[in-house]
Amino acid sequence: MRDRIFEVDSWREKQRFTREQVRDEIRALKEEKNATELHLESLQLPFMVVSQCLSNRDQRVPPELTRDQLGEELRKEEHTIENSKRVLTDVCHMGWEKIKELTNVICRLEREIQNKDDALVLEYHVKDLNRNSSDISYKLDPTRIPPDSMSEESYVHCIENTVKIAEQLMKESKHLREIMFKSREQARNQMYAQSQQVEMIMRRRIYDIQRARNEMEWQKYKLEGNLQKVDREIETLRAAVADKINPTKLVETRLETRMRRPVLERVQDKPMRGLIEEYERVHMSSSMLEKKLEEALSTYHGLYNHHQRVTKDLEYKNQALETDRRLIEIRKPLHRDDDSDFKRNVGYCHMPAELVTD
Fold first, then answer.
1. Three state DSSP letters for the chain
2. SS3 letters for 110-172?
3. Whether the Cβ atoms of residue 29 and residue 177 lie closer than 8 Å to each other
4. Does pTM surpass 0.90?
5. pLDDT tens across 257-290, in order?
6. Coil, strand or helix at 96
7. What is the domain partition of the chain in residue ranges?
8. Predicted local distance difference test score (pLDDT) of residue 356
9. 302-319 pLDDT, tens per residue?
10. Average pLDDT, the chain
11. pLDDT in tens, 80-112
12. Residue 179 near residue 91 (C-beta atoms within 8 A)
């Protein structure tokens, strides 16, 4: 009896120890699961920021609404966040399933421990009985085998099986905790790397647009100067053409008046030849001035149309620049107050006073 009591008590202590180990593992797994859920919840802000960045860039006008590298990197960042959310959601669900399995094995251990407690109470009672005990009596068929009885080997196998199941579940739980930690760190590293890539492409994009905008502004300035120069030239040519009107009228009037001379006086004399030469000279000069005026007007209209196109393109470029600049303000919640990277991004673009404010 003493050996049996010792054996049952030993198994009970082992199961109690295993139960405490399982409880500790459940506690550790819950902490890891809570940390993973918190990280999963923290991904909502970056996802909203990236979605807002993509929506903001969709507001660009059609000439600037192109598939560029910044858009591709933003979509890649969105995909990275979605993939991280999916992975973390899966491991959280796996953690919930594993906690449920560990809870079930704890219930099984507690039930078996309670059975052993009850069995030990009976064993101690049987051990303490003697021939002088008051509660001894004759029994009907005391050697019968109770129903659902098992052999000693089956009994030991059942206990060992429960312990093995608990140990296997704890091993799986530990591996799952490592997966949770690895998934969180991997998600954090991937998001940081992609965020840095987006910041770099955004700086380059803003710099390129600023450079193109500045070139357009210089081109517009030069066009305006050329327009003023051609306009002054047109005014000068118009004045010159106007100055040729009276000389033309004069020479034509002189020629026409001399044609009214008497027949015998209509001599092609030297004054006649001089007036004809003057007429040809005045008309040639007027024709040249009118041709130059026409060419100047054509040049002016061409410059004016080009100026209008440059002005329109400059408006589109400014709108695109303002749109991409707004991304810096939109992405500001992703940076800490003392984030030197964000300050460096602003410094690279030379626009600390140009940020969009609320």
1. CHHHHHHHHHHHHHHHHHHHHHHHHHHHHHHHHHHHHHHHHHCHHHHHHHHHHHHHHCCCCHHHCCCCHHHHHHHHHHHHHHHHHHHHHHHHHHHHHHHHHHHHHHHHHHHHHHHHHHHHHHHHHHHHCCCCCCCCCCCCCCCCCCCCCCCHHHHHHHHHHHHHHHHHHHHHHHHHHHHHHHHHHHHHHHHHHHHHHHHHHHHHHHHHHHHHHHHHHHHHHHHHHHHHHHHHHHHHHHHHHHHCHHHHHHHHHHHHHHCCCCHHHCCCCHHHHHHHHHHHHHHHHHHHHHHHHHHHHHHHHHHHHHHHHHHHHHHHHHHHHHHHHHHHHHCHHHCCCCCHHHHHHHHHHCCCCCCCCC
2. HHHHHHHHHHHHHHHHHHHCCCCCCCCCCCCCCCCCCCCCCCHHHHHHHHHHHHHHHHHHHHH
3. yes
4. no
5. 877 878 767 777 788 888 888 888 888 988 998 9
6. helix
7. 2-128+154-240+300-349
8. 47
9. 999 999 999 998 988 888
10. 86
11. 999 999 999 999 999 999 999 999 999 999 998
12. yes
Place of tokens 């040049």: 299
In this structure, what DSSP letter does residue 338 have? Answer: T
d(CA 119, CA 111): 12
Query: What would the two tokens of residue 150 be?
Result: 């098992």
